[in-house]
Design a protein that fits this description.
The chain is mainly β. The chain folds into two domains: 29 residues, no CATH class; 71 residues, OB fold (Dihydrolipoamide Acetyltransferase, E2P) (Beta Barrel). Helices cover 0% and strands 37% of the residues. The protein contains no helices and eleven strands. The strands form three sheets. The protein has a four-stranded antiparallel sheet with strand order 4-11-9-6, with no helix packed on it.
């Protein structure tokens, strides 16, 4: 205010009122702040009846560890890494996922039998998408 010709300045919004004045102009500086608004919220209602949901057993689903393109074979002329009914051990290669032009061999983190293959050669897969069901 010292660098301008203003002697008083008043700003008022819904919850704030501010008045400034130069010394000697007889204006008092005041500030009014609206009191806090009491908000009451209701707790969400809880349905006490159990809800039946069909949830797949994640422990037996082998999930994609990355986004990419799924391949069951190391090359188009080779046999698939695994087939339904094959027994796999922890560390066995299940498939390849191509991500950013890099072929990543995906290894099983459990031992068991392949009961379902949930992706096809060339499918785009997402992180966390089920690829195999291992029993």
């Amino acid at each position: 205010m010292q660098k301008s010709d203003l002697s008083d300045l008043e700003i008022e919004t819904q919850d704030l009122k501010l008045r400034l004045g130069r010394p000697g102009s007889g204006t008092i500086v005041t500030q009014t702040i609206a009191p806090p608004v009491n908000q009451t919220s209701q707790a969400p209602q809880i349905n006490e009846k159990p809800v039946k949901e069909t949830v797949e057993d994640d422990e037996s689903n082998f999930m994609s560890p990355m986004v990419g393109t799924f391949y069951r074979k190391p090359s188009p002329d080779d046999a698939a890494f695994v087939q339904i009914g094959d027994h796999v051990n922890k560390g066995d290669v299940l498939c390849i996922i191509e991500a950013m032009k890099v072929m990543n061999e995906i290894q099983s983190d459990v031992s068991g039998e392949i009961v379902d293959i949930r992706a096809q050669d060339g499918d785009s897969v997402e992180y966390g998408q089920p690829l195999f069901k291992i029993k």
